[in-house]
Amino acid sequence: MKIQLLNEAQAGKIYQEHMVVDFPADELKPFASIQQMMRQGIYEPLAFLDEEDHLLGYAWQTVLPGCGNALLDYFAVVPEGRGKGTGTRILKALSAYYADRLGALIIECEHPAEAPDPAIARRRIGFYLRAGARATAMESRVFGVRYQIYAMICGKDPGDAVINADLKEIYRTMVPEPYYRGNVIFFGN
């Protein structure tokens, strides 16, 4: 499996051809926002390719200088690879890719108690846990959506307090005031 850090044109192509299909419109950042974060050097869109350079999946992270952890912002496997272990292999490759730079990838999963489809939310959480992520002692509510927070450990486990502090810093960078206040809330550690 090959890992490719995408430039803006490559990221735009995956956004238009895959992300608009893989994610509900209300979950997608405008591509202009992604481009801005890429230009600031805080956003790393990665593609995972087979030996013939066919797309297997993608994982896009918010990685801030000074933070020892990153937010897994978008993750998907192409439809023909789903249910075949491709997602688990990609997550393990992603964790290895960041092992020398990060303690963990922070993963937000919609809380099943409030998700539009609780079964899908439980299935998604189960997938991340089977792939090696661990639950943290925190939750968040971002623009009204309740999330449970998980950590895919890449290097040394930084612990929940550091993960929580980094997630707060990531959101303060991604969501400017006055939108942050009242729309981004954290609970727990």
| CATH architecture annotation name | 3-Layer(aba) Sandwich
The residue-averaged pLDDT reads: 95
What is the domain tally? 1
CATH level-four homologous superfamily name: Gcn5-related N-acetyltransferase (GNAT)
Major beta sheet summary: 8 strands, mixed
- Major sheet: order of its strands? 1-2-3-4-5-7-6-8
Number of beta strands: 8
SSE-based structural type: alpha+beta
Helix content: 25-40%
SSE arrangement, N to C: EHHEEEHEHEEHE
Low-confidence stretches: none
Strand proportion: 25-35%
**CATH fold assignment:** Aminopeptidase
Count, helices: 5
Query: What top-tier CATH class fits best?
Result: Alpha Beta
- Rg calculated over all Cα atoms: 16 Å
Distance between the termini: 36 Å
Give the overall form: globular
